[in-house]
Amino acid sequence: MCYTVSDMEKIVIATSNEGKLKEIKEMLGGRFAVVSMKEAGFHGEVEETGATFYENALIKAKAVSDALGVPALADDSGLEVKALGFAPGVFSARYAGEPCDNARNRALLIKNMRGMTDRSARFACCMVFYKPGGEIISAEGFTEGRVLEAEDGENGFGYDSLFFSNDLGKSFGRATDEEKNSVSHRGRALKKLTEKLECRG
Questions:
Q1: Contact call for residues 159 and 78 (beta carbons, < 8 A)
Q2: Is the peptide bond before 99 cis (omega within 30 degrees of 0)?
Q3: Which of 26, 35, 70, 81 makes a 20 to 30 Å CA pair with 42?
Q4: Architecture, CATH, for domain 5-197
Q5: DSSP 8-state assignment for residue 8
Q6: Contact (Cβ atoms closer than 8 angstroms) between residue 81 and residue 87
Q7: pTM
Q8: First CA to last CA across the chain, in angstroms?
Q9: Helix (H, G, I), strand (E, B) or coil at 172
Q10: pLDDT digits (tens, 9 = 90+) for 121-177
Q11: How many helices and strands (H and E) does the chain possess?
């Protein structure tokens, strides 16, 4: 099933992460009316208790949609490092513990990767669109690369300065927003999702 743009007055983005919100708005803003959950009037916290990216994204999208009575879009994403058994995975945002601290997360990753020769990694993302009444559309996206031994660049957020993108030939920390969005896990998941959201005749 698909939905035309006219079917929806707005899509609420179910995240309080300003970096994610900025990226999603940039990628969807020209095609859909998108607002943050705070702009739409949702100020609560949604506990992510799922074991997978899909489960956590669904929890967030459903909670915001149910509270506001409008379609909601949520993503859950993270860094999967092969040598660490694909950790930090769903725990990426709180890898170094509560509260979420990107700098501490990166420092712990550098420490845990010290001396490792296999530094291959990927970012994974699951996007879930939830419409009142229980209709769900989801899509996944991935981008391959490796973990650097030290931070490189100041752009982006999260682990971007430690992730060397195979597609771009440089770290996400040195990539422009446009460059990153063109190859990122979130960008690829959103592309698949919007193809499902728009009727193609």
A1: no
A2: yes
A3: 26
A4: Alpha-Beta Complex (3.90)
A5: -
A6: yes
A7: 0.89
A8: 12
A9: helix
A10: 999 999 999 999 899 999 999 999 999 999 999 999 999 999 999 999 999 999 999
A11: 5, 8
Contact at 8 Å (CB) between 129 and 136? yes
Q: Catalytic one among 76, 101, 152, 167?
A: 76
Whole-angstrom distance, CA of residue 93 vs CA of residue 158: 8
**Cis bond leading into 88, ω under 30°?**
yes
Beta strands in 82-154 (DSSP E): 87-88, 120-131, 135-147
Active-site annotation holds for 76: yes
Write the CB contacts of 143 (distance below 8 Å, at least 6 apart in sequence): 122, 123, 165, 166, 167, 183, 184, 185, 188
- The neighbour count for residue 30, using CB atoms within 10 Å, is 8
Q: What is the pLDDT of residues 75-127, one digit of tens each?
A: 999 999 999 999 999 999 999 998 889 999 999 999 999 999 999 999 999 99
Burial call 88-126: b when 16+ CB within 10 Å, e when fewer = bbbebbebbeeeeebeebbeebeebbeeeeebebbbbbb
Determine the residue type at 30. Answer: G
